[in-house]
Amino acid sequence: MGDVSHGGLGPGGTEDGLTRSWLELCRDEAGASLIEFALIALPFLILLYGTFEVAFVYWANQELEHAASYGARLVRTGQVQANNLDRAQLTAQVCSQTALLVGCAAKLRLDVRSGKTLGEIAPPVPLDGSGALKAAAAFTFSPGAANDVALISAFYAWPPLLKPSDYILRAASVVRNEPF
Hints:
The protein is of the alpha+beta class. The protein has one domain (32-176). It has 5 helices and 3 strands, in the order αααααβββ. A 3-stranded antiparallel sheet has the order 1-2-3. A hairpin with an 8-residue loop joins β2 (149-158) and β3. α2 (32-76) crosses α4. The longest helix is centred in the N-terminal third of the chain and has 45 residues, at 32-76. The mean pLDDT is 89.
C-alpha cells in the first residue's frame, strides 16, 4: 500500500514527477514576454492596419478633391469646350493630377452637368440597383456654354486591403463658366 499516490504525493509523502513539472512550469517566468507579446500583437496590428487604411482613404479623397477641382477649372475656363474634349479625354486630364489613385483612368467616373441656374441641375446618382458604381457611360457629360453653371462630380472606387467591396470616394465642384 505504500506505493499508492494520493494528491500528487508519491511514496513517503514526496511529489511525483508530473506534479513537480507542473508546479515548476507555473513558477517559471521564462517566456512570459513571449506570451504577453502574443496577447498584445494581434490587437496592435489590427489597430495599426486601421490607422493606415483610414489615412490612405483620407489621402485618396484629398487627391480626388484636387483632381475634380482641376477638372472643374478646365470646364469653367472653356478649355474643355474649345478643345472639344470628350469624357475620356477629360478623365485622362483629371487623372494626370493624381498619384495615389491606382488605375484612375479605368476606375474614375466623371459626371459633368450644366444649366442656366444651379436649380436646373439634378445631382448624379453614382450607384446602380445592386450598390455598385455605375459604368462610365451611365454618367452625363455636358460641360455647357459660356456663363452656364456646371456641376462636376468625380467618383472613384477605392479598394481597401481586407474588405471585399470598395469604398466609393466622391468629390464635386460647382462653377459658373466664364464668358469664353
